[in-house]
Amino acid sequence: AVKIFGRGYVRTNFVLGLEDLKNLIKGCEILAEEGIVSDYTIFFPRPASGIQKKTKDILTKAEVIDFTKNLVKIYQLYDYRPFTCNLSSRTSIANDIYNLL
Fold it and tell me: Which of 33, 56, 62, 100 sits at 20 to 30 Å (Cα–Cα) from 49?
């Protein structure tokens, strides 16, 4: 896809909270080197769901913010932007942190 659309124009999305955060940010770095921009959706275990029993507690705000700061540093290193436009009605935590750093 990067060969067709170009570096920074191919996106992937992770479910934040299902994998170790340090491993996930390393994976985002590897993907960024390949021209792929990572984004995430925060995992929220639905009560009585099968996956709820296989995960740790819900991420804290601090964990989400710390992960996002590291992700934004990757964006900046490769001249990538957060997934959603910060002027749209659907913004993201990444936009807020990107605009602060």
Answer: 62
Q: Is 89 exposed, middle or buried (0-12, 13-18, 19+ CB in 10 A)?
A: exposed
Question: 62-81, pLDDT tens digit by residue?
Answer: 999 999 999 999 999 999 98
Indicate the pTM of the whole model.
0.80
N-to-C CA span, the chain: 29
Asked if 92 contacts 83 with a C-beta cutoff of 8 angstroms, the reply is yes
Q: Which are the contacts of 53, defined by CB distance < 8 A and separation ≥ 6?
A: none
Is 92 in contact with 67 (CB distance < 8 Å)?
Answer: no
Q: What's the confidence (pLDDT) of residue 75?
A: 95
Whole-angstrom CA distances from 43 to 18, 58, 89 are 7, 7, 22
